[in-house]
C-alpha cells in the first residue's frame, strides 16, 4: 500500500498522544505510555501495525541518537568530580548484580553463558526514566540523586562492552582472539575520534558556523553522529559504540551545548518510537500464560537491584538512608537491556518464550518506578529509625575521632555544596567557630586534610547532631537540596535545642510554610532569590541607575519576605522581637576610615536624622556597648548594630561608605548643631 509507512507512524504518534496524556494524569512517566501504545497497536493486540520492521528500523535510530547525546553530555570533568561514585559505586553495582543473577540462573539450571547474559540484562537501569523523574522532583542535586547519577554513568559506559561481549557468550566468536580483535578495533576507532575531535571536527564546525546557517549546523551534527556510527558498524563494531564516540568527540568542542540543544528534539521523537517498538514486540498473552512467574520476576528484580545497589553504595561509606533511596530509584530494567535482549534473541541466548517473559517483567519494573521513588524516602526513614545507628550511619572511618570537638556558641552547616562551601569559607576568614556535617565520605576525608572542622553523617540522626554539639550551637544553616531531609533536620534541631536559630535554604516557595510550621526561623527560597537577581540584571541592561535598582530590589524583598514572615508568625509559638517590630530589620555596619561617620559623636544625630535608623549597640574590639551614651564618638573599625526598615538601613549604609564627600558630612554636622 502506498505511503503505508507514513500511515503507521501517524497511527502510532496519535495513539501515543492519547495514551501518554492519560497516564500522565495518573502520574506515570511518558515512557510507560509509549510502551503501552506499542502493546495496544502491535500485531499481538489490536493489530493496527502488522509490519513492525519499518518501525524497528526507526527505533534503532532512536538508540543511536540516545547514545550520541549521552556522549555529548558526557563530561570528563564531571566524571572526575564524582569518580568514586562512578567507578567504585557503579562498578560494584554492575559487577555484583551480574554475579548474583548468574548464581541464581545456574540454580535454576540455566547454562553459565545464559545466566551471565541474564545478569547483563538486569544490571542496567533506565537513564531516560530516572533522569526525568529526578529532574521533575528537583532531586538531581540531592545526595541520593548524585549517587544514582554516578551509578547510571557507569552503566552507560558499560553498554558498549556488554554489547560486544554478547556474541562471545553465545559462542559466535573465536574466544580470546575475537576479544582481542574487537578491542583492537575499538582502540583504533577511539584514537581516530580523539584526533578527529582535536583537529578535524573543530575545523568543520568553524566552516559551518561561518555560514550562519542553522540548517547546515544541524545537518553537520547528524552527519557526524550517524556517519561515525555507520563506520564503526562497517568495522564490525556496534552502531551504539560509534554514536557514543561521535558524541564524545563533539563534547570537547565549544559548540557542544548548541549541538545538544539542536539534536534533542530528534532524539526525543526517535526514542518515543524506540519504546513504542519495544511494546509492539510484547505479546499480551504471555501475561495470562505466566502471571505468577512474571510477578515473581518483577519482585525479584526490584529486590535484587535494591539490595545490591544499597550495599554497593554503603560499601563506599554512604549512610543507609541515602543508599536505600538510590537503590529503590535504580530498581527498574533499563532501555538498553531491550537492545541487549534483541541481540541475545538473535544469538540464541534467549528463547522466544523467555524473551516475551523478560519484556513483560521489564515493562512492569519501569511502570513501578514512580511508586518505588514515592515510597523510598518514607521506607528509608522508617528502616533507619528502627535499626541501630551504628548500622545505618555509614562508614565510621570518615567521621574521624569519636571524641567530640570542644566548641560552643558556634554555627552548624548541614551540607557542603556550593552554599555550604561559600559560607564556611567566609566564617573561616572571620574566625567564627563552625562545624560542617556532610554525607559524602570522600568530601569529608579531603576537607579534613585541609584542616576543615567537618564531620561525616546524616544530620537527621540525633547522634550526629549530638556529635556537632547541637545543644551549645547558636545557629544552624541547612544548605542541602533534599526538602524532606531538611524538614526532618529542622524538626530534630528544634527538639534538641529549643533556642537555636535555624536557617534553611530551600528550592521552591511552596516549601517555605511547611518549614515554618516546624519552627524554622528563616527560610531562603532559591526560586525567590533567583527572581530578584534576574530583576537586577534586566534593569542593568536597560541602563537603569543603580540607586533605582536598589530601591526596586528593596521593594521586592520587603513584599516577598513580609509574606514569608506572615507565614512564620502564623506558626510561631512565642512572641519575639520580630513580633513587636513588624517590618523592621536589624543590620550590622562597619565604620570605614574616611566615611562620613568616622569621628562623629552620637549627640550630633547624623545617623538618625539622615537615615531614620536607630543604634542598638556598638562593638569596639572585643567590647560590646549596648544602648551607647550620646557622647560616644564613632571610630574606624567600630561595628554598629542598627534597627530600621529596609529603606532606612539602605540609607544608613551609605553613611558608612568612605566614598562619601567630607563636605556633605560637614553640612550634616552644621544642620545638627543648628537644630
Description:
- Helix 2 packs across helix 12, helix 6 runs antiparallel to helix 8 and helix 10 crosses helix 11.
- The C terminus is likely disordered.
- A six-stranded parallel sheet has the order 3-2-1-4-5-6, with helices on both faces.
- The protein has 675 residues and is an alpha/beta fold.
- The chain has 30 helices and ten strands.
Give the strand line-up of the largest sheet.
3-2-1-4-5-6
Helix content: 55-70%
Q: Report the strand count.
A: 10
- Please describe the biggest sheet, giving its number of strands, its sense, and whether it closes into a barrel: 6 strands, parallel
Query: For the CA atoms, what is the radius of gyration?
Result: 31 Å
Low-confidence runs: 397-402, 573-580, 660-675
- Classification by helices and strands: alpha/beta
Gap between N and C termini: 99 Å
- Beta-strand percentage range: 5-15%
Total DSSP helices = 30
Shape: elongated
- Output mean pLDDT: 81
Amino acid at each position: 500500500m502506498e505511503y503505508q509507512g507514513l500511515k503507521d507512524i501517524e497511527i502510532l504518534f496519535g495513539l501515543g498522544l492519547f495514551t501518554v496524556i492519560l497516564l500522565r494524569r495518573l502520574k506515570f512517566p511518558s515512557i510507560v505510555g509509549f510502551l503501552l501504545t506499542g502493546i495496544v497497536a502491535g500485531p499481538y493486540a489490536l493489530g493496527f501495525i502488522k509490519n513492525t520492521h519499518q518501525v524497528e528500523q526507526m527505533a534503532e535510530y532512536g538508540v543511536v541518537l540516545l547514545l550520541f547525546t549521552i556522549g555529548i553530555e558526557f563530561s570528563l570533568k564531571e566524571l572526575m568530580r564524582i569518580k568514586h561514585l562512578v567507578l567504585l559505586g557503579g562498578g560494584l553495582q554492575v559487577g555484583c548484580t551480574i554475579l548474583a543473577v548468574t548464581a541464581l540462573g545456574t540454580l535454576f539450571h540455566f547454562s553459565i553463558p545464559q545466566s551471565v547474559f541474564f545478569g547483563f540484562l538486569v544490571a542496567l537501569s533506565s537513564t531516560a526514566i530516572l533522569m526525568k523523574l529526578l529532574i521533575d522532583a528537583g532531586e538531581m542535586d540531592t545526595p541520593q540523586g548524585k549517587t544514582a547519577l554516578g551509578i547510571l554513568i557507569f552503566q552507560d559506559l558499560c553498554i558498549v562492552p556488554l554489547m560486544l561481549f554478547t556474541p562471545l557468550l553465545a559462542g559466535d566468536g573465536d574466544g580470546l582472539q575475537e576479544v582481542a580483535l574487537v578491542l583492537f578495533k575499538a582502540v583504533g576507532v577511539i584514537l581516530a575520534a580523539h584526533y578527529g575531535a582535536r583537529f578535524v571536527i573543530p575545523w568543520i564546525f568553524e566552516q559551518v558556523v561561518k555560514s550562519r546557517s542553522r540548517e547546515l549546523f544541524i545537518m553537520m551534527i547528524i552527519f557526524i553522529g550517524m556517519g561515525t556510527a555507520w563506520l564503526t558498524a562497517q568495522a564490525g563494531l556496534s552502531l551504539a559504540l560509534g554514536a557514543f564516540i561521535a558524541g564524545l568527540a563533539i563534547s570537547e568542542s565549544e559548540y557542544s551545548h548548541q549541538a545538544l540543544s539542536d539534536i534533542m528534539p530528534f532524539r526525543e521523537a526517535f526514542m518515543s518510537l524506540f519504546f513504542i517498538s519495544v511494546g509492539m514486540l510484547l505479546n499480551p498473552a504471555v501475561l495470562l500464560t505466566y502471571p505468577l512467574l512474571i510477578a515473581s520476576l518483577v519482585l525479584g528484580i526490584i529486590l535484587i537491584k535494591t539490595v545490591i545497589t544499597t550495599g554497593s553504595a554503603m560499601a563506599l561509606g554512604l549512610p543507609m538512608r541515602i543508599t536505600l533511596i538510590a537503590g529503590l530509584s535504580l530498581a527498574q530494567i533499563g532501555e538498553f537491556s531491550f537492545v541487549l535482549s534483541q541481540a541475545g534473541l538473535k544469538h540464541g541466548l534467549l528463547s522466544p518464550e523467555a524473551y516475551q517473559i523478560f519484556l513483560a517483567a521489564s515493562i512492569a519494573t519501569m511502570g513501578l518506578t514512580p511508586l518505588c521513588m514515592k515510597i523510598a524516602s518514607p521506607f528509608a526513614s522508617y528502616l533507619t529509625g528502627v535499626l541501630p545507628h551504628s548500622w545505618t550511619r555509614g562508614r565510621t572511618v570518615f567521621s574521624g575521632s569519636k571524641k567530640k570537638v570542644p566548641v560552643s556558641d558556634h554555627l552548624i552547616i548541614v551540607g557542603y555544596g556550593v552554599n555550604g562551601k561559600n559560607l564556611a569559607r567566609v566564617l573561616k576568614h572571620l574566625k567564627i567557630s563552625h562545624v560542617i556535617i556532610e554525607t559524602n565520605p570522600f568530601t569529608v576525608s579531603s576537607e579534613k586534610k585541609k584542616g576543615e572542622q567537618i564531620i561525616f553523617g546524616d544530620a537527621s540522626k540525633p547522634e550526629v547532631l549530638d556529635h556537632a554539639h547541637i545543644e551549645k550551637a547558636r545557629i544552624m544553616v541547612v544548605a542541602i537540596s533534599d526538602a524532606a531531609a531538611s524538614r526532618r533536620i529542622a524538626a530534630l534541631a528544634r527538639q534538641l535545642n529549643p533556642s537555636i536559630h535555624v536557617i534553611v535554604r530551600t528550592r521552591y516557595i511552596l516549601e517555605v510554610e511547611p518549614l515554618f510550621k516546624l519552627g524554622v526561623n528563616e527560610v531562603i527560597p532559591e526560586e525567590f532569590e533567583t527572581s530578584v537577581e534576574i530583576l537586577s540584571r534586566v534593569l542593568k541592561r536597560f541602563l537603569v541607575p543603580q540607586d533605582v535598582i536598589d530601591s526596586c530590589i528593596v521593594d521586592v524583598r520587603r513584599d516577598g519576605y513580609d509574606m514569608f514572615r506572615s507565614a512564620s508568625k502564623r506558626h510561631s509559638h512565642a512572641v519575639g522581637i520580630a513580633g513587636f517590630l513588624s517590618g523592621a530589620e536589624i543590620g550590622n555596619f562597619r565604620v570605614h576610615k574616611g566615611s562620613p561617620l568616622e569621628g562623629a559623636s552620637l549627640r550630633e544625630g547624623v545617623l538618625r536624622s539622615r537615615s531614620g535608623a536607630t543604634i542598638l549597640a556598638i562593638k569596639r574590639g572585643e567590647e560590646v556597648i549596648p544602648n551607647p551614651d550620646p557622647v560616644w564618638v564613632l571610630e574606624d573599625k567600630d561595628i554598629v548594630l542598627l534597627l530600621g526598615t529596609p529603606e532606612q538601613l539602605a540609607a544608613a549604609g551609605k553613611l558608612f561608605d568612605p566614598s562619601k564627600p567630607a563636605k556633605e558630612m560637614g553640612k550634616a554636622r552644621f544642620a545638627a548643631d543648628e537644630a
